[in-house]
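Anyone have tokens for AraC family transcriptional regulator? Sequence:
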Amino acid sequence: MARPAALLDPSRASATALVADDPRFTAAEFPSNKLLYLSQLADERGIDCRAWFAGLSLNRAQLADPALRVSYRQASSFVRRALAALANAGVPDAGLRIGRQGTVGGFGLLGLAMMTSRTFGEAMQSGIQYHKICGCLLDLAFEVVDEGTVALVATPQFGDVELLPFFCEELFASSTMIARELVGSELAPLRVELGYPRPAYADAYAELFRCELRFGAPQCRLLIETSWLARPLPGYNPLTAKQALALCAQQRTPDGGEPHQEIVAAVERLLRNQLREQPKLNDVAHTLNLSERSLRRKLAESGRIFREIHDRVRAERALQLLQAGSLSVAAIGSEVGFSDPREFRRAFKRWTGMAPREARRTAA
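Reply: yep, here.
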């Protein structure tokens, strides 16, 4: 039986341990776009992808939720399983296949911000600045190479070079498709540099990018002529661009705050969907395929306790319903799991420091 790579290479084992201790590794900050696209590719090929979700506190139905955020740990584990299954089914070029489907509209708010930018250069800068809200799992930078050349530079997170080919293929392919949509199909990079060996399907790269390709390069870069940056965009609308960028800034997490640890985000998702049923810690643990003790420990490691998360989710939902103004206080209490309106009023005042009616008047 094959032994895990970390056991064969002690230095890799140490690196894996260091990454696992990094809170950014389990911070739920990425939309699930890549996971959804891989699942759809599996459907097209008749591949059962249920095993890809094992141990990730996720299921297939959740991937279509625009509010879902996953951690790098969850996403990278899923992608590794997906790529292995797809390669076994004769699909080694999943990144290029997904990237070729890239459109400005598929980027949502960021696509709108890019499309209404003044120039292609401004659109490119916006795309780099807010790349994480589209599920990009690479670190991106903009680099001036020389007077006539600029580059989009991609770097793996957590030194994860194993997934670099897939992530780069998807990123550079979708970026090229979107750039052609914005400024014209004649756009071609000057050169694409890839920091990994030439794959067997390199001809597909040549067909897509229509430029020089360099595999085994020191870094991953997509280089274009500087003259493209000044190209005006036909959809320029300064007000729409400003509004879209403001919304992009709020989209890092659904509530606009800092990303939660993945276990906290998973518990919040389940609670939001089941508030009326007043789920207990054991219920949530069972749904996440954990023991109650394991869930309690994982939450403690993230500096949280179940009751505090439950109360905050209930308070947020109650405030939303109070601001909407269409339900009575008793009905809102029922929506967040209280059968007795008096218990809801007491709990709401404990959560927020004010009575529900006072919160409604303040919102009005």
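The chain has three domains: 25-91, 93-252, 259-363.
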